[in-house]
Amino acid sequence: MTQLTQARQGIITPEMEEVSQGEKVLPETLRERIAAGTVVIPKNIRHTNCRPKGIGLGLRTKVNTNIGTSQEHCNVTEEIEKLNVALEAGTDTVMDLSTGGNLDSIRKILIERCPVPFGTVPIYQCVVELLQEGKAIKDLDEAHILDTVRRHADSGVDFITIHCGLTKRAVDKMRHKTRIMDVVSRGGAFIVNWIRIHNRENPFYTSYDKLIEIALEYDITFSLGDGLRPGCLHDATDSLQLDELVVLGELRDQAVEAGVQVMIEGPGHIPLTQILANVQLEKSICKNAPFYVLGPLVTDVAPGYDHISGAIGGAIAAASGADFLCFLTPSEHLRLPTVEDTREGVVATRLAAHAGDIAKGIPGASDWDDAMSRARESRDWERMFALALDPKRAREYRTSSPTKSQDVCTMCGDLCSMKQVKKNE
Fold it and tell me: Which of 133-137, 146-150, 244-248, 415-419 shows the lowest mean pLDDT across its residues?
């Protein structure tokens, strides 16, 4: 039984109890939202060391961290370090996007060390294995897809991205060449090529019923991927993106009816003025399913600073109702992230998520800021460090510039406004 099927039967599971306590939401309210498909708790029955996290309506906006090897850079020890620093920085979930090395082994190593929900993109492994066997993307078939998804499920993966909404109709429509950047999703590109070669429907779409069966067996949450997400501002909110979203809404209904938990993945690159509309469209078409966005990036001209561009878009998306933010790092579009890139990306995205939570009125969100303000007013530095989004960075800045008096900083010294006011109370 999945969290969804149990919720429909009126059962409040231990995972629901734990999430409700952390989110300041009544267990019965949480159960009702899970039953309606507006909240998910991604937790594979085989991921025994996983702390449950709720994602969706009325809950704190969650942050995901992507790690994983590439064929150009494969260092498993470094990926373990990225996992550890992401957890230390407060990520809510982790995804392994590895494409280099022994993917089954890497996934096993990372899951064993990951106490939060863990996601993957099975099509990556499908294609990598074909290439390792001297084959090509055209050789991908349903049997290989289902076998790979089952291996991921059996290893304890909690949520999987499946690009099942990218249809042959959409690929045919791409011939009109209305975009600057046709496809920026790696999984989406694999499927577009497969459809063009075979002139047949997306195998993830045609095998969707069987994928549902695997998800039900392990209680895997589907993250329905947007293979045609816009990769630049010019392409945002176009007909290709919206056509796929409609299909994802239909697939969401099919899976939820069967008892599978579902999230919807979103763009990408969006101008500030289109973020609210994108969130509202997803919520309407997909019946308030949890919305998982990549950033979104609000400009295309900030390589080296895309974690900031993504944080700006992420804060607006979260405030507009997005539920789950995928992190971006300073190295986005430039290289595989380093350990330090990973830390920077998590902190920036957590900042965006928290700003969105304040705007949404999530229970307890503004209490954190109030506590920090009281610590600042009394110049309680240790309390400020403890409350900081990044305590280590805050302490480093404070101690790097010593003062004569311990109750002030080098910005104002004894001219500190709060200290001056205290003198004449």
Answer: 415-419
Q: What is the pLDDT of residues 222-251, one digit of tens each?
A: 999 999 999 999 999 999 999 999 999 999
Same domain, 347 and 408: no
Task: Write the pLDDT tens digit of every residue in 258-270.
Answer: 999 999 999 999 9
CB within 8 A of 83, min separation 6: which ones?
Answer: 67, 94, 110, 113, 114
Residue-number span of the structural domain to which 124 is assigned: 42-360
Report residue 273 as tokens: 């003025």
318 within a domain of the structure (yes/no): yes
Whether 404 and 263 map to the same domain: the answer is no
Q: Which residues of 205-240 are buried (b: 16+ CB within 10 A; e: fewer)?
A: bebbeebbebbbebbbbbbbbbbbbbbebebbbeeb
Residue pair 321/283 in contact by the 8 Å Cβ criterion: yes
Q: How many domains does the chain have?
A: 2
Q: What is the DSSP letter of 210?
A: H
Q: Can you give the pTM of this predicted structure? A: 0.96
Residue 230 amino acid letter: P
Q: Is residue 388 situated within a structural domain?
A: yes
Based on C-alpha coordinates, what's the Rg of the chain?
A: 22
Alpha carbon distance, N-terminus to C-terminus of the chain: 63
Task: Quickly list H helices, 259-305.
Answer: 275-285
Structure tokens at 162: 């499946």
Judge whether 166 lies within some domain: yes
Average pLDDT score over residue span 21-41: 97
Q: Is 184 exposed, middle or buried (0-12, 13-18, 19+ CB in 10 A)?
A: buried
Assigned domain for 342 exists: yes
β-pair type (324-326, 291-294) = parallel
Number of other residues whose CB lies within 10 A of the CB of residue 406: 9
Determine the average pLDDT of the residues in 90-95.
98
Q: Let me know whether 245 and 343 are in one domain.
A: yes
Confidence of residue 425 (pLDDT cuts 50, 70, 90): low
Determine how β-strand 262-266 pairs with β-strand 93-96: unpaired
**Confidence band (pLDDT; 50, 70, 90) for 162?**
very high
Tell me which of 327, 342, 360 is where a domain ends. 360
Domain boundary among 306, 331, 360: 360
Looking at residue 78, its pLDDT comes to 98
